[in-house]
Amino acid sequence: QTRSNLKNGSALLQHQTALAETVLAQLTKQQRCLLLTADHSNGIGGVSGLCRWVDASKVGVIWIDAHYDLHSPYTTPSGNSHGMAVNALIDDNNAEHAEQSVTPEEAQLWEAIKSIKGMGNAVPPQNLVFMGVRDYEEPEEALIHKHGICSIQPQEIADNGLEACIEKALTHLSHCEHLYISFDVDSMDPSISSATGTPVAGGLSLEQAKLLIQTLLSNPKTRCLEITEFNPSLP
Questions:
Q1: Fewer C-beta neighbours within 10 Å, C or N terminus of the chain?
Q2: DSSP state letters, 134-180
Q3: pLDDT for position 194
Q4: Whether the predicted pLDDT of 234 surpasses 80
């Protein structure tokens, strides 16, 4: 094996467990959470904290991103955990589309990472909405189709308008009592957001990003807003 399929797995488990506990403590005080993070793997800890406060069946997640982040160690092309965050939340290793084997240690770490939110407390796929995704691999697309996950891609936003797409997302999650909003800055077009590790052309405009965040943040169901993948060291 030339590379790890779960890079820095032990550190990831430790960090996301601590983050989940911090989010839980904040929510227990009846306070909303604003998370400013450098890597989208922090969505694991953030959502897990909310799922430890209320059952995951009541949690809706709006993942605003250029990518699905639906890989597992069994399908990852890179081993980078920021591409596995949502997979960790829905507890589907996507074994039927596995592209490599994992070591026993990696498998054990991955199961521990998935259980930060509590064993058997997976976020149901129908509680997910993706917005702005335009760069993904076949194993991720297979999970979208397998579970019928709601994905509002850039063309739909262009055709129907952002307001209508926000309404669609909230309607899809109307059965959820609490919302976690995860905003990856690479959801915006690289002409605006270049200081991020994986920019992809065709993203949101600055005006659209502002409207999206302001509208979702004003929703009384929103408990957590995460803004992530900003790297000021990049030009």
A1: C
A2: ----HHHHHHHHHHT-EEE-HHHHHHH-HHHHHHHHHHHTTT-SEEE
A3: 79
A4: no
Q: What is the pLDDT of residues 29-47, one digit of tens each?
A: 999 999 999 999 999 999 9
Q: What's the confidence (pLDDT) of residue 166?
A: 98
For 75, 151, 185, 197, the CA distances from 97, given in Å and listed in that order, are 7, 20, 29, 26
Identify any residues that bridge with 183 across adjacent strands, giving them in sequence order. Answer: 64, 227
Residue 116, both tokens: 């930060």
- Per-residue pLDDT at 37: 94
Global pTM exceeds 0.90:
yes
Strand order in the sheet with 222-228: 33-36, 222-228, 178-184, 59-64, 128-131, 150-152
For residue range 95-121, what is the model confidence (pLDDT) as tens digits? 999 999 999 999 999 999 999 999 899
**CA distances to 28, 40, 46, 47, 127 from 188, in Å:** 32, 15, 21, 22, 23
SS3 20: helix
Q: Helix, strand, coil % (nearest 5) of the chain?
A: 45, 15, 40
CA angle 98, 100, 102 (to 5 degrees): 105
pLDDT at residue 193 greater than cutoff 90: no
Residue carrying the six token digits 């397998």: 146
Distances in Å between the Cα of 214 and the Cα atoms of 115, 208, 217, 222, 225 are: 32, 10, 5, 11, 11
Q: Which two tokens stand for residue 206?
A: 């600055």
CB 174 within 8 A of CB 218: no
Q: Provide the 3-class DSSP secondary structure of residue 184.
A: strand
